Amino acid sequence: MPRTGNTTSPIDSTVDDGGSEERAARAVPALTIAWALAEPHRVGEVAIFSGSGRSFLGRGGDDELDQVVFARVRPGVVERTGSLAGNHLSRRQIAIEVSGDDVEIENVGKLRMSVNGVEKKRATLAAGDVVSLHRHSAFVFGLRPARMPKLGADYPPCGFGEPDAFGIVGESAACWEMREQLALLARFDEHTLVLGESGTGKELAARAVHALSRRARGPFVARNAATIPDALVEAEVYGNRKDFPNAGMPESDGLIGAARGGTLFLDEIAEITAARQAPLLRVFDRDGSYHRLGDPKPRKADVRFVCATNRSPGELKSDFAARLTLRVELPPLDARREDIALVARHVVLDDAQRNPDAVGRFVRRDGRRPEIAIDPAFLLRLLRLEYPTNVRDLVRVLRQSVTASRGDVLEAPPNLDDDRSGVVAVSDASAGISEADMRLALERQRWNLTHAAEQLGITRYKLMRLMRKYGLRDAG
């Protein structure tokens, strides 16, 4: 890969060795910077290996054509940032041999190299592996498109590695694909179902859809459906006239009235029983109408419903689910591990802004942008942990670190691994699914992952995680 220096340009054949759209769209091996001691602003940059051959990761030189070059890769644009810097890094530190999707690495430089926390001289990489150079840098290995086309819909710009206008953080291909889907959904004024595991940011996604839609000037009203008592669903959603059903009851326009002209977000919609979903069907129809309790006059619902659930859509009443005509599934943290370091940075910086006396000591402001001070060993563990409730789990671990760290550097809280295993046992819905159960579901559904996941009562991403665990490949 030739080193070209710092430029900003449309993606070209220096990243996609064939130049064709088909080749650019397919997933190819990539290394994403997750930590760099001397250059923390480069976290999220990626080196893409779109062809076979041998190259070297190191500080390199302008005349070395086989040097790995990192870039800030976004839809439609690549900003080349060159090789890494830093003390003790050799000009040729890691030799990388690529053959198709197979990648072998060999440490040929001065710094010690570890893969998934184990020091090694050579290794064959698999998706999700973490490669680290002692006291210098760390990388997450995975597969991603050789290039990303321009977004098919407008999305507000944001700084590299920074939260976007809706609080979504990530530079992975999965995160940008999600942003594009949200922007495209916002063009329609149709009711929408947001799917995703707990902690994947379903409310952030709903807010993005609202803010990018023609209803952006209207209100955004959010309510957790699981907190609405079963007997009060209609009263909460529709409202009631004064003195009904009991004397002295104040008049209420309900959630639909409060969201008039805007968007009503109902989280955990599957927690409303099927019996209580039925009375809501008419209001979900196009030009839907409803009656406030005790009011004989029908009202038109000028509202877009965005509903969310971490369950399978099959758990919703079929005719209710059919009215949520648009769908989007949010990727779990496991599907975008290269974003973990950026998300962790955002969480700590946000907490420091809210609680400067408690968290401010972990923020450094002497570089290009504010960064967090974190023990490299702790960060490497964060990159490899399981996150059953995704960002929610990551936030909890980071806040435990804040309370456990005695100095001004975030350190791993005590008994971290023991605590995580307890969370996995309680929260992971896939824990009781055997390899035989999974194989049977896949065969019955002819290896359609979405349908097999619905049969098993888990998300598609959890099924993919199980397949990796048992070493199964998609037979389709």
Word description of this protein:
Helix content is 28%, strand content 20%. The protein folds into four domains: 8-145, Tumour Suppressor Smad4, CATH 2.60.200.20; 173-329, Rossmann fold (3-Layer(aba) Sandwich), CATH 3.40.50; 333-427, Helicase, Ruva Protein, domain 3, CATH 1.10.8.60; 435-469. The longest helix has 15 residues, at 340-354. By secondary structure, the protein is α+β, with helices and mostly antiparallel strands. It has helices at 21-25, 173-186, 202-211, 233-238, 254-258, 274-277, 281-284, 318-321, 340-354, 356-359, 376-384, 391-404, 416-427, 435-444, 449-456, 460-469, and strands spanning 8-9, 27-36, 46-48, 53-57, 70-74, 77-82, 94-99, 102-107, 113-115, 118-119, 122-124, 130-133, 137-145, 192-195, 220-224, 263-267, 289-290, 299-300, 304-309, 326-329, 363-364, 371-372. Strand 9 (113-115) and strand 10 (118-119) form a beta hairpin. The strands form six sheets. The chain has a six-stranded antiparallel sheet, covered by helices on one side. The protein contains 16 helices and 22 strands.
* Quaternary status: single chain
The fourth-level CATH homologous superfamily of the largest domain is P-loop containing nucleotide triphosphate hydrolases
Roughly what fraction of the amino acids lie in strands?
Answer: 15-25%
Strand order of the largest sheet: 3-2-13-12-9-10
Gyration radius (Cα, Å) is 25 Å
Estimate the helix proportion, in percent.
25-40%
- Largest beta-sheet characterization: 6 strands, antiparallel
CATH architecture of the largest domain: 3-Layer(aba) Sandwich
CATH topology of the largest domain: Rossmann fold
Number of extended strands: 22
Total helix count? 16
What general form does the structure show? elongated
